[in-house]
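# step 3/5: fold
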Amino acid sequence: MSIPNNDLINELIELTPESNLAITRNERAAATDNTQAAFDIIFSVDSSRLTPEIKYHFASIVAEQTGSATLAYFYQQSLGQHPLNLTDPAFKAAEKYLQTLVNHPKQTDYQLLNALTHHGWIESDIILLAQLITFVTYQARLIEGLRLLQQHEPSHIHTPLITAGQWNNHPQTHQGKPSPTAFTQEQLGWEAWLNARDPQTLDADETQVMKKFGQLNSEYFLLLAHQSKILEIRTLIDRGVFYTAGGLPRWEREFAAAAASKVNGCIYCASVHARKASQYAKDRRTDVEKLLATPVGSALADGFDERLTAITDLATALSATPIQANHQQIVLLRKLGLSELELLDLIQSTAFFSWANRLMLSLGEPFQIEENKE
């Protein structure tokens, strides 16, 4: 399928260049352009395991289960009538990994990855598979969030408040380190379930990229460096979503990321972004702590001021699987004074953490740093 103006998102939501939303997306050019670049590289990089047909097949499943019929239809059309060997044990192991990661991200574990390696998947193909699945969950939420911004007539659909999801209750990691069992703003470590790359194996360009992002010694980044170009583009999207001037205050973007992490049960991501939210708005640390302390099954958008409640309501509804966000939430946020750029920032911050949470949860696990226990 041809993509006019080289922007799949704009095409799928039928966004014209002169529209306010298209102009607003251009204000966040780094996120917009690199989202397209991520699609281009993920679906073009060579892999003997993940042929283009299998990629489109998996992507259509992810989009449909995430709740974007528009995106699912695009991938189904891209697949066409190509026959697939759906009985291959390696394929079945990948599909089980996909189903868990999309619908129950906290339930992904070492055994799911071990099943992939048992059936011959190597690290570079597993990382490509993980990036494919998690990128499409981000892409679907971005599309559906933008579609809500386009709807002019208020919707009267109301959905129940989204609750905090399940999180870790195991006292030790796979490698025997102390495992956090409660959400915290303390710094945590993270260990991979696969072999990360040795920094000595990086070529000059890869090394430069890792140095630029300050991650040459990060086990997580070195693991994702099995697909180094995807890692680079994904990091540029992260910078384009969170490190931009104007729009939604930085602390509220970080708070939305922490709220998404509570839905998905990602203690590691929540610790990083709750800490950042508190750093950017020290007077709101109590709100951050309240979010983190929300027990499993309790509503997340509860007990804050009107603006933060509405922000949390949209962020958590967009993070749910399938997506539960509705236009009435946008109407309320506009009544509370949020601009189009602020709404875009909120949607992108939330959607990106569908991607971030699922990568962290499905490729390794956090551990407590001993000095934090003193």
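# step 4/5: annotate
The two ends are 57 Å apart (CA to CA).
# step 5/5: archive (pending)
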